[in-house]
Design goal:
7% of the residues lie in helices and 37% in strands. By secondary structure, the protein is mainly beta. The protein has a single domain, classed as Beta Barrel (Elongation Factor Tu (Ef-tu), domain 3), CATH 2.40.30. The strands form two sheets. Strands 2-3-8-7-6-9 form a six-stranded antiparallel barrel. A two-stranded antiparallel sheet has the order 4-10. A hairpin with an 8-residue loop joins strand 5 and strand 6 (95-105). The chain starts with 5 loop residues before the first strand and ends with a strand.
Length: 162
Amino acid sequence: MATKFFNLNLNMTNWLRIKGIIKKGYGVASGKGGDIRFPDGTIAMQKPFFFDRGLDLEPYFSGTLNISISPHQYSVKQAKYTFINVKWAENEPAEDFSFFDCRILLKNDQLQSGLIYYPHPETKPEHFQSPDILEIITFKIDDLKYDDEVILEVDNQQIQIR
């Protein structure tokens, strides 16, 4: 059955809903993947560099939720934040990053805000994602597990779903 998109608010905002599935990632963002270069995870290492550029990720969990929107894919339209040439690790090349607004509809019908984390593939040295995977930075959600279905809301002025 095809995924349907719904406009969240009656006042015609830009939020679109799409079903997604929680997928296992590389574990590098959170540090749970065992990569000795990033024992606390890449997000924890990157947070101060984003903060210095105006984006405070400190309240969020230092890791990402990998959400598959298959069979759909996404494309970047207009990021909320873009940071170019971020040298966040001594022995790693500088990378470009963009962030986009998103929300996750939780089981209790509460919306939890977050950001789509998008390391630009052209500057990312490894750990590439499938084109249907969105990496989400948000607050810790204890009751999610791999293969759980979630509703993800994205701003269609920032991200296009196709």
